[in-house]
Amino acid sequence: MEIIHTAIDGVVIIEPRLFKDERGYFFESFSQRDFDKQVRTIHFVQDNESKSSYGVLRGLHFQKPPFAQSKLVRVIKGSVLDVAVDIRKGSPTFGQHVAVELTEDNHRQFFIPRGFAHGFSVLSDEVIFQYKCDNFYAPQSEGAIAWNDPALKIDWKIPADKVILSEKDKHHPLLAEADGLFNYHEDLYKE
Protein backbone atom coordinates (compact mmCIF):
# COMPACT_ATOMS: atom_id res chain seq x y z
CA MET A 1 0.00 0.00 0.00
CA GLU A 2 1.06 3.57 -0.62
CA ILE A 3 0.67 6.05 2.23
CA ILE A 4 -0.20 9.60 1.16
CA HIS A 5 0.47 12.10 3.94
CA THR A 6 -1.92 15.05 4.13
CA ALA A 7 -1.52 18.63 5.35
CA ILE A 8 -2.54 17.50 8.87
CA ASP A 9 -0.10 15.21 10.65
CA GLY A 10 -1.52 11.73 11.33
CA VAL A 11 -4.35 11.97 8.80
CA VAL A 12 -3.41 9.77 5.85
CA ILE A 13 -4.82 8.43 2.61
CA ILE A 14 -4.04 4.82 1.82
CA GLU A 15 -3.86 3.69 -1.77
CA PRO A 16 -3.79 -0.09 -2.20
CA ARG A 17 -1.74 -1.94 -4.77
CA LEU A 18 -4.28 -3.27 -7.27
CA PHE A 19 -3.76 -6.46 -9.27
CA LYS A 20 -6.00 -6.49 -12.38
CA ASP A 21 -6.50 -8.95 -15.18
CA GLU A 22 -9.32 -10.16 -17.43
CA ARG A 23 -11.03 -11.78 -14.41
CA GLY A 24 -11.28 -8.54 -12.42
CA TYR A 25 -9.04 -7.32 -9.64
CA PHE A 26 -7.56 -8.21 -6.26
CA PHE A 27 -6.10 -6.05 -3.50
CA GLU A 28 -5.23 -6.42 0.14
CA SER A 29 -7.62 -4.06 1.93
CA PHE A 30 -5.92 -4.28 5.32
CA SER A 31 -2.72 -5.68 6.80
CA GLN A 32 -2.16 -5.17 10.53
CA ARG A 33 1.59 -5.53 10.06
CA ASP A 34 1.81 -2.93 7.28
CA PHE A 35 -0.59 -0.53 8.97
CA ASP A 36 1.36 -0.65 12.25
CA LYS A 37 4.62 -0.08 10.40
CA GLN A 38 3.53 2.64 7.98
CA VAL A 39 0.71 4.51 9.75
CA ARG A 40 0.60 3.78 13.50
CA THR A 41 0.24 0.86 15.88
CA ILE A 42 -3.44 0.34 16.39
CA HIS A 43 -5.92 -2.40 17.20
CA PHE A 44 -9.27 -2.20 15.42
CA VAL A 45 -12.16 -3.71 17.38
CA GLN A 46 -15.31 -2.92 15.40
CA ASP A 47 -16.30 -2.84 11.71
CA ASN A 48 -19.34 -0.84 10.55
CA GLU A 49 -21.18 -0.46 7.25
CA SER A 50 -23.77 2.04 6.07
CA LYS A 51 -25.82 2.47 2.92
CA SER A 52 -26.96 5.93 1.83
CA SER A 53 -28.30 7.78 -1.20
CA TYR A 54 -27.22 10.96 -2.97
CA GLY A 55 -27.19 14.04 -0.76
CA VAL A 56 -27.01 12.22 2.55
CA LEU A 57 -24.50 13.91 4.83
CA ARG A 58 -23.40 12.18 8.01
CA GLY A 59 -21.39 14.17 10.50
CA LEU A 60 -19.43 15.72 11.86
CA HIS A 61 -19.12 13.09 14.60
CA PHE A 62 -16.59 12.03 17.23
CA GLN A 63 -16.47 10.13 20.51
CA LYS A 64 -15.17 11.86 23.63
CA PRO A 65 -12.49 10.29 25.83
CA PRO A 66 -12.19 7.72 27.25
CA PHE A 67 -14.04 6.29 24.23
CA ALA A 68 -12.28 8.30 21.51
CA GLN A 69 -12.05 6.46 18.20
CA SER A 70 -9.75 6.27 15.22
CA LYS A 71 -11.43 5.25 11.98
CA LEU A 72 -10.20 3.66 8.78
CA VAL A 73 -12.88 4.30 6.15
CA ARG A 74 -13.52 3.18 2.58
CA VAL A 75 -16.22 2.97 -0.07
CA ILE A 76 -17.38 -0.37 -1.48
CA LYS A 77 -19.94 1.05 -3.92
CA GLY A 78 -20.40 4.61 -5.17
CA SER A 79 -18.52 7.71 -4.01
CA VAL A 80 -18.32 10.09 -1.06
CA LEU A 81 -16.45 13.17 -0.02
CA ASP A 82 -14.90 12.17 3.30
CA VAL A 83 -13.80 14.84 5.79
CA ALA A 84 -11.66 14.87 8.94
CA VAL A 85 -11.63 18.04 11.10
CA ASP A 86 -8.92 18.66 13.69
CA ILE A 87 -10.69 19.34 17.01
CA ARG A 88 -7.62 19.18 19.26
CA LYS A 89 -7.40 22.45 21.19
CA GLY A 90 -3.85 23.80 20.99
CA SER A 91 -3.09 22.03 17.71
CA PRO A 92 -1.41 24.13 15.01
CA THR A 93 -4.09 22.81 12.64
CA PHE A 94 -7.09 23.22 15.00
CA GLY A 95 -10.28 23.77 12.98
CA GLN A 96 -8.64 22.78 9.71
CA HIS A 97 -9.81 19.82 7.69
CA VAL A 98 -8.72 17.29 5.10
CA ALA A 99 -11.23 16.18 2.46
CA VAL A 100 -10.75 13.25 0.09
CA GLU A 101 -12.99 11.62 -2.46
CA LEU A 102 -13.33 7.90 -1.83
CA THR A 103 -14.83 5.81 -4.62
CA GLU A 104 -15.42 2.23 -5.61
CA ASP A 105 -12.96 2.82 -8.46
CA ASN A 106 -10.04 4.46 -6.63
CA HIS A 107 -10.23 1.99 -3.68
CA ARG A 108 -8.64 4.60 -1.44
CA GLN A 109 -8.95 4.44 2.33
CA PHE A 110 -8.80 7.35 4.73
CA PHE A 111 -7.39 7.14 8.26
CA ILE A 112 -8.88 9.55 10.79
CA PRO A 113 -7.00 9.50 14.12
CA ARG A 114 -8.44 10.17 17.54
CA GLY A 115 -8.92 13.89 18.11
CA PHE A 116 -10.78 14.50 14.85
CA ALA A 117 -14.44 14.92 13.91
CA HIS A 118 -15.50 12.87 10.90
CA GLY A 119 -18.21 13.14 8.29
CA PHE A 120 -19.03 12.36 4.69
CA SER A 121 -21.38 13.44 1.93
CA VAL A 122 -22.72 11.04 -0.68
CA LEU A 123 -21.85 12.09 -4.25
CA SER A 124 -23.24 9.07 -6.13
CA ASP A 125 -26.82 7.78 -6.45
CA GLU A 126 -26.06 5.24 -3.74
CA VAL A 127 -23.08 4.40 -1.56
CA ILE A 128 -21.98 1.51 0.62
CA PHE A 129 -19.49 2.81 3.15
CA GLN A 130 -17.36 0.70 5.50
CA TYR A 131 -15.16 1.65 8.40
CA LYS A 132 -13.03 0.11 11.09
CA CYS A 133 -12.91 1.62 14.60
CA ASP A 134 -10.30 1.16 17.29
CA ASN A 135 -12.80 1.63 20.12
CA PHE A 136 -16.34 0.39 20.61
CA TYR A 137 -19.33 2.64 20.03
CA ALA A 138 -20.33 4.37 23.27
CA PRO A 139 -23.54 6.43 22.93
CA GLN A 140 -22.90 8.28 26.19
CA SER A 141 -19.66 9.60 24.68
CA GLU A 142 -21.07 10.98 21.41
CA GLY A 143 -19.90 14.39 20.31
CA ALA A 144 -20.47 16.39 17.15
CA ILE A 145 -20.05 19.74 15.45
CA ALA A 146 -22.18 21.38 12.79
CA TRP A 147 -21.53 20.18 9.26
CA ASN A 148 -22.09 23.70 7.90
CA ASP A 149 -20.04 25.68 10.42
CA PRO A 150 -18.82 28.62 8.27
CA ALA A 151 -15.52 28.73 10.19
CA LEU A 152 -14.64 25.26 8.82
CA LYS A 153 -15.06 26.27 5.15
CA ILE A 154 -15.92 22.74 4.01
CA ASP A 155 -17.14 22.35 0.44
CA TRP A 156 -19.23 19.19 0.67
CA LYS A 157 -19.53 19.01 -3.17
CA ILE A 158 -23.35 18.95 -3.04
CA PRO A 159 -25.74 21.93 -3.05
CA ALA A 160 -26.93 22.86 0.47
CA ASP A 161 -30.57 22.46 -0.61
CA LYS A 162 -29.87 18.83 -1.60
CA VAL A 163 -28.28 17.88 1.75
CA ILE A 164 -30.19 15.16 3.64
CA LEU A 165 -29.50 15.07 7.39
CA SER A 166 -30.67 13.00 10.32
CA GLU A 167 -32.70 14.94 12.87
CA LYS A 168 -29.73 14.75 15.26
CA ASP A 169 -27.26 16.10 12.68
CA LYS A 170 -29.44 19.19 12.14
CA HIS A 171 -28.75 20.48 15.67
CA HIS A 172 -25.01 20.20 16.40
CA PRO A 173 -23.10 23.21 17.77
CA LEU A 174 -20.48 25.22 15.91
CA LEU A 175 -16.89 24.25 16.67
CA ALA A 176 -16.43 27.39 18.82
CA GLU A 177 -19.38 26.29 21.00
CA ALA A 178 -18.76 22.53 21.10
CA ASP A 179 -17.88 20.70 24.29
CA GLY A 180 -15.79 17.57 24.75
CA LEU A 181 -13.06 18.70 22.36
CA PHE A 182 -9.62 17.15 22.68
CA ASN A 183 -6.37 18.52 24.07
CA TYR A 184 -3.54 18.50 21.53
CA HIS A 185 -0.95 17.89 24.24
CA GLU A 186 -2.73 14.82 25.65
CA ASP A 187 -1.82 11.34 24.39
CA LEU A 188 -5.17 10.09 23.10
CA TYR A 189 -3.80 6.56 22.63
CA LYS A 190 -2.57 6.09 26.20
CA GLU A 191 -4.37 3.14 27.81
From TrEMBL:
Class in the EC hierarchy, top level: isomerase
Coiled coil regions in record: none
Listed pathway(s): Carbohydrate biosynthesis; dTDP-L-rhamnose biosynthesis
Keywords: Isomerase
InterPro entries: RmlC-like, RmlC-like_jellyroll, RmlC_Cupin_sf
Gene Ontology molecular-function annotations: dTDP-4-dehydrorhamnose 3,5-epimerase activity
Gene3D superfamilies cross-referenced by the UniProt entry: Jelly Rolls
This enzyme's EC code(s): 5.1.3.13
The reaction(s) this protein catalyses: dTDP-4-dehydro-6-deoxy-alpha-D-glucose = dTDP-4-dehydro-beta-L-rhamnose
Entry similarity comment: Belongs to the dTDP-4-dehydrorhamnose 3,5-epimerase family.
Function: Catalyzes the epimerization of the C3' and C5'positions of dTDP-6-deoxy-D-xylo-4-hexulose, forming dTDP-6-deoxy-L-lyxo-4-hexulose.
Subunit and partners: Homodimer.
Protein name (database record): dTDP-4-dehydrorhamnose 3,5-epimerase
